[in-house]
Amino acid sequence: MFLAGDTHQRIYDNYVSLGSLGIAIRGRSTRLTLSYRSTHEILTVAEGLLGSEEWDDLDGGTETLAGYRSVLRGPQPSFHGYTSWEGELAGIVRQVKDWLPADGTSPSIGIAVPERRLMPEVEDYLNSRGVVAASIGPDGPRQLDAVHVGTLHRFKGLEYQRMIVADVSDGVIPAPRVEYLRHSDPLRYQREIKQAHSLLFVAATRARDSLMMSWHGKPSPFLPPGLPA
């Protein structure tokens, strides 16, 4: 039996240790620390998106990303704030057009949004401005040769050369409903906060070469400190 897992990418309510299932891994497991998917620069930013939460190692212990490294190097991820959603959409189009390959080959660009209702907005906005875009459905992208638009959840398991994570705004990530749990259900609150961190980590690490994160208004508190409001 071979099992691989990364609890930093746990975005659903499946919390169980392998030991409780009768699978003994103590002294028989290996920690993988070398990434071949994302650049060193993207991986460094993605680590920061996990915040100060404590993560388990699938067997009742704790796990960190300390010592993780990448064999790839590339540009630093970019962070862009806008005063409105319309302005953010315009910034997304500018970045996508800058990334589009000149030879007309498949763009390998993904745009992740925090809410499903934003998918058609982003898709229609790009298509109306000359960028072929298609949403990601339950069975995957609806059109292969296009810029793909999906929720943070929908990008789990996918990979792109370039990624934009949009609307990483205060009051959006984490979702407003989470704050209501802080006092009424502290355990659930902590779990929701961890899932929100994991969603951003998953979206950021879908990118191999380039990553842009954007917001409008104030940035999410999960983003690195010191960003322009």
For this entry, give a set of tags.
single chain; 229 residues; Rossmann fold; 7-stranded mixed beta sheet; two-stranded parallel ribbon; 27% helix; 20% strand; globular
Q: What is this entry, summarized?
A:
The protein is α/β, with parallel strands linked by helices. Helix content is 27%, strand content 20%.
What does this structure look like?
Helix content is 27%, strand content 20%. With 229 residues, the protein is an alpha/beta fold. It has one domain (7-216): P-loop containing nucleotide triphosphate hydrolases (Rossmann fold). The protein has a seven-stranded mixed β-sheet, with helices on both faces. A hairpin with a 2-residue loop joins β7 and β8.
Shape: globular
Structural class: alpha/beta
CATH architecture: 3-Layer(aba) Sandwich
Proportion of helical residues: 25-40%
Through-space gap between termini: 49 Å
CATH homologous superfamily, by name? Answer: P-loop containing nucleotide triphosphate hydrolases
- Classify the fold: give the CATH topology: Rossmann fold
> How would a textbook summarize the main sheet?
7 strands, mixed
CATH class: Alpha Beta
| Spatial sequence of strands, sheet with the most strands | 5-11-10-6-9-7-8
Evaluate the radius of gyration. Answer: 18 Å
Low-confidence stretches: none
Report mean pLDDT, rounded to a whole number: 86
Count structural domains.
1
- Please count the helical segments: 6
Kindly estimate the percentage of residues that lie in beta strands according to DSSP.
15-25%
